Amino acid sequence: MDIDKAESSTASESTTTEQIIDQMGGASGLVLSTVPVIALIVAHLFLPLMPTLAVALGAGAVLFVIRLARGEKVPSAIGSLLGVAVAAALVIWTGSVRDFFVIGIWAALAIFLPTAISVMARRPLTGMIWNAVHGGEHAWREDRPTYRAHVIATSAIAVAHLAKFVVQQWLYVAESITALGIADTLMGAPLTIALALVVVWAFRRSTTRMRAAEARHAETATGDLIDGRNL
C-alpha cells in the first residue's frame, strides 16, 4: 500500500510541477525569453541607443508571436513582452542601456531576502508553500528529512539569487553592458530551470514521506481496531 501511495503522490507532484512550469512558458519558453537580451547585446555593439532598443523590442514582439503560435499560455507570452517593454521604457527614461537589466537585478535581491530570512527563521519558504498546497495541516518541520529537503531547496534559491544580484550589480556599476547581458542570460533561464528541479525534488520527497506516514498511521489504526475486536 505504501508503494502505491508513493507512486500516486509522485504522479500528482509531477502534474503540479508540469502546471507550474507550463505557467512560466515551459523550459523552452524560458530559454526563448533570453532572445531579446541577446538581441540587445548584439545590437548595442553596432547601433546607437534608440535603434538598439528597437531591435530588442522587435525581438520581443517576434518572440511574443512565436510563443502564441506554439500554444503557450497568453499571460506568459504577454508577461515576457511586457517585461521587455518596461525595461526599454526605463532605458529611454535614463538614457543608459545598462538600465535594461536593473529591474532583474533588484528582483533578484527581492527574492533573496524572504528566502534567506525564512531559512534563518527555520521556516523555509518552499516548505511553507508545499504545506499550504497540501492543506496546511502537516507537521512537516518535525520530519527531519522533509525539513532538510526544504532547507536545501530554499537555500539554493537564496544563494542563487544573491549571486545573481552581486554579480550583475557589480557589472552594472562597472557599466560593462556586454558582460552584464551575458551574465543575465546565463543566470536567467538555465538557473531558473535548475532551481525548479531542486524545488520539485523537495516537493516530491515531502509528498512521498507524507503519504507513507499516512499509510502507516492507517495500518496502525486498522490493527488496533482488529485487536480491540478480538479482545
Automatic annotation (TrEMBL):
Instruction: State whether keyword Kinase applies.
Output: no
TM region positions? 29-47, 53-69, 76-94, 100-121, 151-171, 177-203
Q: Per its UniProt record, what InterPro entries does this chain match?
A: UCP010219
Short name of one Pfam family: DUF3159
Asked if Transmembrane is a keyword of the record, the answer is yes
* Keywords recorded for this protein, A-Z: Membrane, Transmembrane, Transmembrane helix
What is the official name of this protein in its record? DUF3159 domain-containing protein
